[in-house]
């Protein structure tokens, strides 16, 4: 297929582009490079620098590309920032996605895979999280992702869009060969922050709360390897049903606490990685982890990285050789 990938120069997007290319698809990456990196784009993909807000350029790319499908990785994702700047998030995550969907409709592109999030569930009533649990986001970021899911639900019967929303848990790790990985500025994700301590780039790692109702008192999250996410995207775009909206959790089905992540990173890196316990962050649920059975049953997907140490080892391989991210190159 000819696949349009917006945000394909970013962390998850670049790994998915690589998987699509390996699967034999022709990929066009569209990215404004506000958070992505040109070096992360697979050399076999076509790259176009552009913004979803620029409908003229977007229409031109669609006219030339004659795409069969599109994927979306271009949302803003900092939960804290979304609370302070909600309109920034609604403008990019919702309005710009509406622009893309409108363009897809005009050019008769009927396959779409959307990067959604477990934040649509808010503080879940039960664990592990299934797709049928109530959707009650507790921040603007989660609200914007759920709003896009509503647009996708409405678009199926209206104009035949076959859409899959993949609700990520904690995307982690790096390409197995160490050539692409996570490079955010500022960095907000736990595993790269822990590895920055091992690299000597920060003195210690903060642990936000050690009095949660969990076995060791720290928050528990589901760390899904980015290459497993990429495989889920490939299966979804190849198998989605025209006119139908589908939503799936993408996680390992198990959780690891903050203290477990730090201990695993110590084992992998051989560094002591000092940890400093501080107060809880507002809005942090004690535990979030997925039940991914529906994705398994529908697409035959299985995570290859089941042990968090394996995931951290791939991230460490990337960060050791790219201490300053893609700027290292």
What does this molecule look like?
The protein is α/β, with parallel strands linked by helices. The chain has helices at 11-22, 55-65, 79-84, 86-106, 140-159, 190-198, 226-239, 258-269, 293-299, 308-321; strands at residues 2-6, 26-31, 46-49, 69-72, 111-117, 162-168, 170-172, 205-208, 220-221, 223-225, 245-250, 256-257, 275-278, 287-288. Strands 3-2-1-4-5-6-11 form a seven-stranded parallel beta sheet, sandwiched between helices. It has a three-stranded mixed beta sheet with strand order 12-9-14. The chain is globular and about 55 Å long. The two termini are 32 Å apart.
Task: Describe the structure using short key phrases.
alpha/beta; Rossmann fold; UDP-galactose 4-epimerase, domain 1; 7-stranded parallel β-sheet; 3-stranded mixed β-sheet; 38% helix; 18% strand
Q: List the secondary-structure elements in sequence, H or E.
A: EHEEHEHHEHEEHEEEHEEHEEHH
Into how many domains do the coordinates divide?
Answer: 2
With strands numbered from the N-terminus, the spatial order across the biggest sheet is: 3-2-1-4-5-6-11
Query: In CATH's first tier, which class of the largest domain applies?
Result: Alpha Beta
Oligomeric grouping of the chains: single chain
Which geometry do the CA atoms define? globular
